[in-house]
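# nightly structure sweep
# worker-07 picked up a monomer target from the shared queue
# config: single-sequence mode, recycle default, output format = structure tokens
# input follows
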Amino acid sequence: MPGETYESDIRARKRIAGSIIYTAQIRLIREGAQVYQESQTFARKLAARHGAVRSIVMQ
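# output follows
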């Protein structure tokens, strides 16, 4: 759709136990306004990347 863009990022966070988890977040921006946001947490960075891409493709 014209005027529609997706943004995604992956953030790392350390748990109290010391392990690192990754949160993939995607945003749909239509005509300059954010109209949709989704995030999901993963144990591995590669899984977070694939999760973000899969979410964008499924839209």
